[in-house]
TrEMBL record:
InterPro entries: AB_hydrolase_fold (IPR029058), Carboxylesterase_BioH (IPR050228). Coiled coil: none annotated. The lineage of its organism: Bacteria, Pseudomonadati, Pseudomonadota, Alphaproteobacteria, Acetobacterales. Keywords: Signal. It comes from Falsiroseomonas stagni DSM 19981. This is Alpha/beta hydrolase family protein. The keyword Protein transport does not apply. Residues 1-20 form the signal peptide.
Amino acid sequence: MKKIVMAAAMAVGMAGAAAAQGTQQPPVSLQSWGSFHVGGREVVISGQPVREVLFSPGGVPARVDPNGTYLMGSMYAQYMIPANPRGRAPILMWHGGGLTGVTYETTPDGREGWQHFFLRRGWPVYVSDAVERGRSGWTMIPEQTGGSHLLLTVDNPFERFRIGNGPGSFARGEVLPGNQFPADRESYMNFMRQIVPRFTTTDELSLEAYLALLDRVGPSVVVAHSQAGLFGWRAAQERPDKVRALVLVEPATVGDPAKVAALRDIPVLMVFGDYIAQDSRWPAIRANGIRFAEAVRAAGGSVDVVDLPERGIRGNSHMVMMDRNGDQAAGVIQDWLASKGLYQ
């Protein structure tokens, strides 16, 4: 990896962002900053008709033959390596369903995200876009995706991510009492601009890409949110030598029950926000996670569970890292990682 010093550029960019927020943050010095793609599989398509396509108005039509070999299922990752690392392993940040790595880069109201929080504390940070999202590209080959894509309406995350106070709350503009998500219309629409189409049928493609990322980066701390909880559990089970610790932020599902023993030597932290007991879905989701954690413990593993309200951190939505008190939750993760000997 080529090492370059980006301190000046980062100082200007972050200082400008801080000024816009009315706060002043110190500059961050980097030894390197870049991106790459990993993973993917070659797929051969045949039997499709040749078409004539006009790519630009006023141009000349081109003959396009859709038959041939395609590369699908690759994944984008961006890395920032601090000048003086203190984390004993890189942190890989994996986002949830219908989202991209922007989840960790910034908040809808313009604050620094968890990418910056951990970078400022000396962690090498890798933020990725999952397969079929963001800068990882897109494919519409139904034989490979196994289904059609899903895109969320504007009111869906407001009411499903424990921001709004029940059905119809988006239309009413009513948030849950004390909720910390920046839910003013401008901020919420900034959040909706991040929502992208997703498949519910490409989990194996996604897992392949996450494993390729671990193979390239090496032993890492994995921070996985929501849908990515599945990939965090499964990646740790498939590459136990590559996962130094697993942090699951409101994981939406569990790993492979037949492979819990593979998690024996990997410390795991599960973090849950607020308003879970009164939600229609999250009590069952959390209970499933706790049962899986108990199975891991029974196999000799270590799983710590943090319910943020019990730590005095209240009002968190499903998007914990974007909440106004998200840095408090990040602080819990930071302290836990330090307690596991992963920070110097």
